[in-house]
Each structure stands twice: as structure tokens, then as C-alpha cells.
Amino acid sequence: MQQMNWYENPTIAAIIGAVVGSVLTAAVSIFIWKKTSRVKRVDCVINDASSLLTFSDTIRSELEVKYSGEQTTSVFLFNLEIFNSGNQAVANQPVLIRIDNKAKIVGYSLKTEPKVGFGKISELQRQNGELDLTIELLNPGDRVYLELISVNNASDLIDVYMKNANVLCRSYTRKAAESAILGVLNKQIDPTLVSLAMIGSLPFGGFVAPFAAIILEQKFEKALRQRK
């Protein structure tokens, strides 16, 4: 009778397979943990601008509106929402706002979430259509709601710049974000996500959830760039 090689023994093969599977699972888990454990990211959502001074064209030329003694042709309200969407605290986050270069920023108000114990928000510069702020500290989930009023805008143009060291900063309109999300959801289901969902349903498959989150995040960012 021919002696069975050790690697042909089903018991030994099962043990080796389990060990190799455990090692691979651990390696993948460590890789995903490194990718997702430290994320410094700040988002700014720009809501639609509102005109606070609207008249019919038939009477516009006959009206004279003044703000602080100066003639005003338009008044705009801008709403911004700035928040830490990562899982690491962000220090000294700059927020540089630029609107129509013919416009003048006449005032703004800030609300924070949480209301108590929030990092200091300082104004660095405000002149004409420029406003520069810095947020001392943004913990994960912290939010800043900014309302800005300007006069003499020729358009509802607004840009927000937030470049910060080792921080992923994203600025986009709410419409772009909603379109990106719908675009991701409406597309044909990604076979990679299907595979991950099948693995995730297994008893040992819990490690794939962060990997699926990475794929969805990448798809959202790609769709967002296309609609920005």
C-alpha cells in the first residue's frame, strides 16, 4: 500500500488552509486598518445663495436702495456648512472665502455644533469680497454653520479654500453632493462590492466592511469631482 504524502492528508490540508486563511485575513485587516484608522478630512458644503433684494425689471430703474449710506444694487445671503468628516482632530483649519470681486461682505454670523467647548474661530481678514477665518480645533463630527451677507454682487459666485497640512479638504455645493450620491446609487452594482457583501455574510467576513467603505468613498469622490 502506497504511503500518503503529508500534503494529501485532508486533515493536515484543512489545518494548513485554516492557518493560511487566518494569516491572509489578518494581513488584509491590518492593511485596511492602516488605510482607515487615521483620516484627517474637512468638508465644506455650499448651499444655494439667496438674493435678499429682488424687484421687477419694470420698477428696478426707479428704485434707490442704500446700505450704510451707499447705494446698493443687490444683497445676497450665503450659507456654508464646515465639518470634520474624518476620525482625527484637525487644528488651525483655514477657511478662505472669496465672492464676486465687485461685492462687499457686510456681515456674517457663526453657529457651532457642539455649542459649548468649541475651538476658537478667529477672523484674519475681511475686506470687500474676501473673508479669511481660522478654526482653532475641529474634532470629528464638529460643525460650523456660517451665514454671510454681501452687497453689490454681480453674481452668486462663491469659492471656499481650506488647504491645510496633512488634511484632505473638500469644498462642494449641496446639489453636487446630492447628484454624486444619486449617481453612485443609480449605477450598476459594482461586482467588487457584491463579492465583499458575500464574504461579509460569512462568519469570518466582518473584516471586509471597512474595505467596502473605502470603495464607496472613492466612488463618491470621483462622482463629486465630475459634478463640481
Question: Which features would summarize this protein structure in a list?
Answer:
12 strands, alpha+beta, 228 residues, 5 helices, six-stranded mixed β-sheet
Terminal CA distance reads 73 Å
- Quickly count the helices: 5
Shape: elongated
What ranges have pLDDT less than 50 throughout 5 or more consecutive residues?
192-205
Q: Strand content of the residues, in percent?
A: 25-35%
Rounded average pLDDT: 74
How many strands, which pairing sense, and closed or not: the largest β-sheet? 6 strands, mixed
Instruction: Note the run of SSEs as H and E.
Output: HEEHEEEEEEEEEEHHH
Q: In total, how many beta strands?
A: 12
Rg estimate, integer Å: 26 Å
Write up this protein.
- This protein has five helices and twelve strands.
- It is of the alpha+beta class.
- The strands form three sheets. Strands 1, 2, 5, 7, 10 and 12 form a six-stranded mixed sheet that branches. Strands 8-9-6-11 form a four-stranded antiparallel sheet, with no helix packed on it.
- It has helices at 10-36, 57-60, 174-186, 191-200, 209-227; strands at residues 41-46, 50-51, 66-67, 70-71, 75-84, 90-99, 104-113, 121-127, 130-138, 143-151, 158-161, 168-173.
- Helices cover 32% and strands 34% of the residues.
